[in-house]
Amino acid sequence: MHGRSIRVHGRLPRGVCVTGEGDGHATGASGVLLTVTLADCVPVFVVDPLRRIVALLHAGWRGTAAGVVEAGLDTLSGAFETHPKELLVHLGPAICGCCYEVGPEVFRALDEVAPRTPAAIDLRSVIRRRAVAAGVRNEEVTVSGECTLCGDGRYYSHRRGDRGRHRGYMGILPRTGAGSG
Ligand SMILES: [Zn+2]
C-alpha cells in the first residue's frame, strides 16, 4: 500500500489464511508465515532472537518516507516489548543505488539532500540510516548485494517493466526440543 500500516498476527488455525492489505507484518507465533510482494522495493526482515519475534516490512520510497520502518519497530516495541538495540535487520534484494534514478522530490520526501536534477538513490542505505536512527545497532543491519534490475534476472523489476512480483517470506520454526532455537 506504500504506507505504514503494520499488522500483528497471533497464532492461527492450521491451514491457509490470507490477511488483508498492509505494509508490514509481525508475529511471535511459530508456524505463521509472513509475506510481502515486491518488484524493486526493499523487503525489510527484522528478528528479535531473544524473544523469538519476527517482522517483515515492504519499503519502497513512499513507504520509507511515510515511516514504515519506524512503524515496524514501534509495533514490535508496543506489541512485544522488543528493544531496537536487540534486533537484527536484513535488507533483502531490491533495486540498487546505481539503478534507482529518482527526481529531487523523492530525495526531499526521504529527508535527503536533494539534487537539482534526477539522480540515483540507494534506498537501502536510507533505510539502514533510519533503522539506526530508531535505535537498531548499525552492525546488526545486513544488506543484500543483489539488485532486482541489474542483477542476474531472477527477480522482478518494476523499473524494467515487469508485471510480476516476487515474494519475501519470514516465519518462526516451532521449537523442536530442548536447547534448539
Ligand atoms: Zn542495479
Task: Please tag this protein with its features.
binds zinc ion; 20% helix; 181 residues; two-stranded antiparallel sheet; CNF1/YfiH-like putative cysteine hydrolases; 6-stranded mixed sheet
Compact summary:
The chain has 181 residues and is α+β, with helices and mostly antiparallel strands.
Please describe what this structure looks like.
The chain has 4 helices and 10 strands; from the N terminus they run βββββααββαβαββ. It has 181 residues and is α+β, with helices and mostly antiparallel strands. A hairpin with a 4-residue loop joins strand 4 (42-48) and strand 5 (53-59). The strands form 3 sheets. Strands 1-2-5-4-6-9 form a 6-stranded mixed beta sheet. The protein has a two-stranded antiparallel ribbon with strand order 3-10. The protein has a two-stranded antiparallel ribbon with strand order 7-8. The chain is globular, with a radius of gyration of 16 Å. It has a single domain (6-95, 122-166), classed as CNF1/YfiH-like putative cysteine hydrolases, CATH 3.60.140.10. The model has no long low-confidence stretch (mean pLDDT 94). Helix content is 20%, strand content 24%. It binds zinc ion. Zinc ion is lined by residues 96, 98-99, 147, 149-150.
Anisotropy-based shape: globular
Q: In the CATH hierarchy, what is the architecture at level 2? A: 4-Layer Sandwich
- Approximately what portion of the residues adopt beta-strand conformation? 15-25%
Number of helices: 4
Number of strands: 10
> Taking all residues together, what is the mean pLDDT?
94
Number of domains: 1
CATH superfamily: CNF1/YfiH-like putative cysteine hydrolases
CATH first level: Alpha Beta
Low-confidence stretches: none
What ligand species are in this complex?
zinc ion
Q: C-alpha Rg, in Å? A: 16 Å
Helix content: 10-25%
Query: Strands across the major sheet, in which order?
Result: 1-2-5-4-6-9
* Gap between N and C termini: 33 Å
